[in-house]
Amino acid sequence: MTLNTKEKQELINTHQNHGTDTGSAEIQVAMLSKRIAKLSDHLQKNTHDFSSRQGLLKMIGQRKRLLNYVKGKSQKRYSDLIGKLNIRG
Q1: Distance (Å, rounded) from C-alpha 77 to C-alpha 59?
Q2: Please, are residues 85 and 34 in contact by the beta-carbon 8 Å criterion?
Q3: CATH of the domain spanning 5-85
Q4: CA distance 29 to 48
């Protein structure tokens, strides 16, 4: 499940660190989280779509690696990011 241009631009505007930031780890995590949410909804309706399930697991792993990177750089940025995205309890 891909994101359209409008959704991507909203995520970039919400999570960018400065005016020209389009690919920071925070933005990548936000886009992955949105794609994961869409794909999870799809998989609840289509339980036998195993190739999409494999893609979902890969995206979750990539998001986890990016979150570990952000956490290693700055604990404050990490806590702000997970607070914005509501991805951990």
Answers
A1: 21
A2: no
A3: 1.10.287.10
A4: 27
User: Where do the structural domains in the chain lie, given as residue ranges?
Assistant: 5-85
State the pTM of this model: 0.91
Cα separation, 51 vs 21, in Å, equals: 33
Sequence-distant (≥ 6) Cβ neighbours of residue 88 within 8 angstroms: 82
d(CA 78, CA 58): 21
Q: Give CA–CA dist 77/85, Å, rounded.
A: 12
pLDDT confidence tier of residue 20, bands split at 50, 70 and 90: very high
Cα distance from N-terminal residue to C-terminal residue, the chain = 25
Q: What is the mean pLDDT of residues 54-69?
A: 97
Q: Kindly give the interhelix angle for 75-85 and 25-45, rounded to the nearest 10 degrees.
A: 30
Distance CA 40, CA 35 (A): 8
Residues 27/16, Cβ–Cβ less than 8 Å: yes
